[in-house]
Amino acid sequence: MTRIFPDYTYGPGPRAKCWWDETIAAPDWPTFEGEARVDVAIVGGGFTGINAALRLAGAGLSVTVLEAGPPGFGASGRNGGFCCLGGGKISNAALTRQFGAEGRRAYRAAEMAAIEHVAAQLKLFGIDADTHSKGETVLAHNDRAASHFIKEAASVAEDYGVEPGIHSAQDLTSMGMATSAARGGLSIPLGFALNPRKYLFGIVDAAIAAGATLAAHSRVTSIAPEGDGHVLRTEQGRLRADRVIIATNGYSSEDLPGWLAARYMPAQSSVLVTRPLTQAELEAQGWTSHQMAYDSRNLLHYFRLMPDNRMLFGMRGGILSSPRVEKLSLQRVRQDFDAMFPAWSDVESPFGWSGMVCLARNRTPYIGPVPGRPGLFAAMAYHGNGVAMGSYAGHMVAGDLLNQDADAVPAAMRRPMGRFPFGRFRRVVVPAAYLAMKVADL
Ligand SMILES: Cc1cc2nc3c(=O)[nH]c(=O)nc-3n(C[C@H](O)[C@H](O)[C@H](O)COP(=O)(O)OP(=O)(O)OC[C@H]3O[C@@H](n4cnc5c(N)ncnc54)[C@H](O)[C@@H]3O)c2cc1C
Hints:
By secondary structure, the protein is of the alpha/beta class. The protein has helices at about 45-60, 90-125, 145, 150-160, 170-175, 195-210, 280-285, 325-340, 385-400, 430-440, and strands at about 35-45, 65, 80-85, 135-140, 165-170, 185-190, 190-195, 215, 220-225, 230-235, 235-245, 265-275, 290-295, 300-305, 310-315, 350-360, 365-370, 375-380. The protein has 2 domains: about 5-80 and about 195-265 and about 360-440, FAD/NAD(P)-binding domain, CATH 3.50.50; about 130-195 and about 265-355, D-Amino Acid Oxidase, Chain A, domain 2 (2-Layer Sandwich), CATH 3.30.9. It has 10 helices and 18 strands. Strands 1, 2, 8, 9, 10, 11, 17 and 18 form an 8-stranded mixed beta sheet that branches. Strands 5-6-4-13-14-15-12-16 form an 8-stranded mixed beta sheet, sandwiched between helices. Helix 1 runs parallel beside helix 6, helix 1 packs parallel to helix 9 (about 385-400) and helix 2 (about 90-125) crosses helix 9. It is globular and about 65 Å long. The two termini are about 40 Å apart. Bound molecules: flavin-adenine dinucleotide. Flavin-adenine dinucleotide (FAD) binds near residues 248 and 355.
């Protein structure tokens, strides 16, 4: 197994102080041992893998999910909980040029369907995931960004058929959304916030009830063809599966399968969570709203006041990964938090952690077969927005195995992932890319 970040990234260190762990206990999944045979093996137990398992087990197939870490180890158990539009970074112009107006519409419709999919899962399985927020609000970090909101509102209305609200800086103050810098706002009435670990473990229960087998601490070390199927090896077992779904996103390896080499770009995102803020502290800052929000930077900050009045604040993480870098990275998050919410500069943030997201050269998610490996499928690359899109992609890739809904996956998400330059050393381009984005944000 070859992975492009240091081992520290894939261990318990970066998520040691994850707030979500305090909110719900992890279920007990056994380690996979010995030999077994199933219809479908799924590598990775996050939103993608569990949503796929749920659909396949519900359709009567035998399914085993192999997860390298403990339950909820990956990004799905440690994200910001924004169940929102997104999943790719492709522009409308590029979508139209490459896939036509119909392709663009289908792509934007899938973003909405992804949110609806999660909302439906919560309802269907009676999962209480501490949801809040009616859509999301973008805060302009400068006047130039605010001046673009009229055009952006028109584009959102055309893409999603909803009416966004445009707010002045004064409006934001009266809405209880005052930061040190916001020059205006754009509210998009789609999406909501949730506790990602409660959502994940809720669908885990549903997948188990549907008949899926889930194994933790069961890292897949190889996937080899055997007859019409595949053999997946873990340290303690050998699983024979007719078909395999790769659901490893930012925790993927270059050789699982080899097709993935240089086709995914893992990147870190970091989050802090404060202690509960008092009403007086909320009013002192002028932020009393539970609306989820992010700023208009390319290197954006995302933040929301949770139902228990703790503030969650996240942004891109470091380029390197080690205990020292992790510490520095969280210090940087704290600095940006203090700059945006100066009234809270003395408020403790006892929780802070990092995790991996996944980018693709095409700037779109991928859902579909692994080229050149019949029987292998993959769903990944949500560009830091995989609560909704990862869930939907897992559901849709399961549909591929069941020969259902194939036409519902937009063409843009069917185009196989392209290769990044520099192979295993592709992370070298990231500092320059971040710098360019930072300059564009000025
Ligand atoms: C700090 C942070 C904040 C984020 N905030 C948001 C947000 O607010 N909204 C949003 O939409 N998205 C957010 N994201 C992104 C979102 O969490 C991810 O896109 C989504 O969780 C991806 O789900 P997944 O199931 O594809 O991957 P993951 O949840 O990462 O799961 C992949 C799993 O594969 C396992 N794995 C890897 N290799 C192997 C192997 N060889 N054998 C067995 N198992 C293996 C890993 O251990 C891991 O658990 C955030 C991400 C991070 C890190």
